Write the structure tokens for this entry.
Amino acid sequence: MKIITFAAIKGGVGKTTLAFNYAEWLAANDNNVLLLDLDHQCNLSQIYNHYDTDGTVGNIFLGNGDVKIHSIKQNISLIVGDMHLDDIETDIENKTNKNMLLYMWLSDNYEKLHIADYDYIIIDTHPDFATATKNAVIISNTILSPITPSEHGYSAKFNLEERINELSKEAIDFSTRKSYVTAKLFFLANMVRHNTKSSHELLEVIKDDDRVLAKIPEKELFNRSTLDKMSLSTMTDDHKIYIKQSKFFDEINQIFSDINQKI
Ligand SMILES: Nc1ncnc2c1ncn2[C@@H]1O[C@H](COP(=O)(O)OP(=O)(O)OP(=O)(O)O)[C@@H](O)[C@H]1O
Ligand SMILES: [Mg+2]
């Protein structure tokens, strides 16, 4: 099983859109995927029309009540986000094990919730590096961080890297001194355009960085996918939609396949 977190300090860079579409692409390629919505904006849960107030990720961090795994469709399950997760983070601020709660929940419930049945756990996070995001980083094998063609997007790259390094020093097993942080950090250049100065500048800076796994074009269909709650993979199944934009759909299929190979 592989655990992948979409994280970025900056908001609106495409974490949710890419987490959703990549998860759906994995599912369409015969992988059983569990989605975890760790953003109190709950955008990922909303895409699947889930607005629950109990059995959410909040219960993981509060350590009370049962967490519900919703079976959404073939190969996609979801643990719904909690709109009060930010308050919960504040409440648990003084707990010494606050960054390890997801790790402990996962190991405590591994058998009971049949976690081993999932090929991937995909986690969406809030644009920050607060407690929930740190918990996600600690259990992850891979962090995928979208960066966009803006100056801030690019400096956020270093910001996230530094925060993960700090966490890595902090989250250690005190007897062995080994860090719980083992995730590899990769970047996805997102919303890249052909004809803008900022896109060219971004492409120039990242061209020799092999941790940038993909260049994902800016395309209205990404926006449509979350608004219409229909992933690009599902759109592709409809021949009429596919044929109109086959070049784009083929490109995205190739991009997701490349990402999957490299991580
Ligand atoms: N490649 C793309 N092409 C066009 N639009 C995109 C692309 N990626 C994301 N978007 C759009 O950009 C907006 C922000 O995306 P999204 O909500 O996924 O970002 P986010 O990082 O999850 O934001 P937040 O930090 O608020 O959680 C959305 O309207 C989304 O549809
Ligand atoms: Mg989001």
Remarks:
- The radius of gyration is 18 Å.
- Residues 225 and 232 are 6 Å apart (CA to CA).
- The domain at 2-262 is CATH 3.40.50.300 (Rossmann fold).
